[in-house]
Amino acid sequence: MNKKSRPSEQYIQENREVIGKQIRTFRENKGFSQDELAEIMEVNRSTISKVETGKFAITIDYLVKFAWYLDFDISVLEKKGK
């Protein structure tokens, strides 16, 4: 793949779906329903559903909130000083 080209919509959608499935797994492992997670995150349940099915373009802010409430690590860069 030529990295100078743009990612296809299919590539983006597939990755949204993969991330959504992982978030659903984390939610289920924590024992939360979509309604319960939506309540503690102060979002609509439909937002949780859309994220989990890859129908929502998740922002970094939302990803950080999911990581906080579901207790998973989203580190992608090594922190300085380690």
Give a description of the structure.
It is a single chain. The protein is mostly helical. The protein has a single domain, classed as Orthogonal Bundle (434 Repressor (Amino-terminal Domain)), CATH 1.10.260.40. 60% of the residues lie in helices and 0% in strands. It contains four helices and no strands. The longest helix is centred in the first third of the chain and has 22 residues, at 9-30.
Secondary structure layout:
Layout (H helix, E strand, L loop, with lengths): L8 H22 L3 H8 L3 H8 L7 H11 L12
Helix pairs in contact: 2-3
Judged by helices, strands and strand pairing, the structural class is mainly alpha
CATH overall fold name: 434 Repressor (Amino-terminal Domain)
The overall pLDDT average reads 91
- Give the total of domains: 1
CA radius of gyration is 14 Å
The helix-strand sequence is HHHH
* SS strand fraction: under 5%
Q: Pick out the low-confidence regions.
A: none
Count of DSSP-assigned helices: 4
Number of strands: 0
Q: Any idea what the CATH superfamily is called?
A: lambda repressor-like DNA-binding domains
Q: Name the helicity range.
A: 55-70%
How far apart, in Å, are the first and last alpha carbons?
33 Å
Return the CATH architecture: Orthogonal Bundle
Any idea of the CATH class? Mainly Alpha
| Largest sheet, strands/sense/barrel | none
Shape: globular
